[in-house]
Amino acid sequence: MTAKTATKITLWEFFQQLGKTFMLPVALLSFCGIMLGIGSSLSSHDVLTLLPWLDVPLLQAVFIWMGKVGSFAFSFLPVMFCIAIPLGLARENKGVAAFAGFVGYAVMNLAVNFWLTAKGILPTTDAAVLKANNIQNIIGIQSIDTGILGAVIAGIIVWMLHERFHNIRLPDALAFFGGTRFVPIITTVVLGLVGLVIPLIWPVFAMGINALGHVINSAGDFGPMIFGTGEAPAAAFRPAPYSGGADPLLPRRGEPWTFAAIASAAR
Predict the structure, then answer these.
(1) Are residues 253 and 150 in the same domain?
(2) Average of pLDDT values for 138-162?
(3) Whether residue 68 is found in the same domain as residue 80
(4) Among 1, 46, 108, 122, which residue has the fewest nearby CB atoms (within 10 Å)?
(5) How many Å apart are CA 1 and CA 233, to the nearest integer?
């Protein structure tokens, strides 16, 4: 077997394992989607008009609770992916890998926040500025919303750091920080640097998405074909139209999901 063939097999196995790690957050997402759908629909004004016998305080409290709890997976989906990827890919010390995944994602967004603050973009409450820079509140941090794609990249980086450093031995004076304890430490440093690069790269990536949207809009009869071909792969990263504009029915991060929003996202 040649080295080239071995590399291909290794990459293929890696992507297979990476795909398996998605199943953990996707399974929770499916369950939360059911809870959110039931809770939001049965507590909506339209349903209560058709089925007035559901307008009971206790039942409505249960339905609203289901909607609130079910919205968890949709509000924190990137965090779930960033934790699940190193957890699923790590061969040993999976708990440390998962912990480092959360640390890395939080530090990355803090570094982005630092860059935005240093550039004078933050702090601000101007909706136009926030929208122009794609700034959202992510786990309590104002940062550029990189969505699931950013979480996947961060999770892979954390996994690579974990596999490289979880058995590291440091000099006796620093032995306390060696082994598995070193993984979140090196993750903090590396993802902190990655967060400084994201504001430089992500706008270019977003411009590419917007340009693709304009191409599809101007493609005439070929537009639906291009859109349909690319919709399935793109859905794994972000449920937004190719034009780059947010669906008015879809809530922004942190806002509650409504029955209309769920129906719009499912289309």
Answers:
(1) yes
(2) 93
(3) no
(4) 1
(5) 33
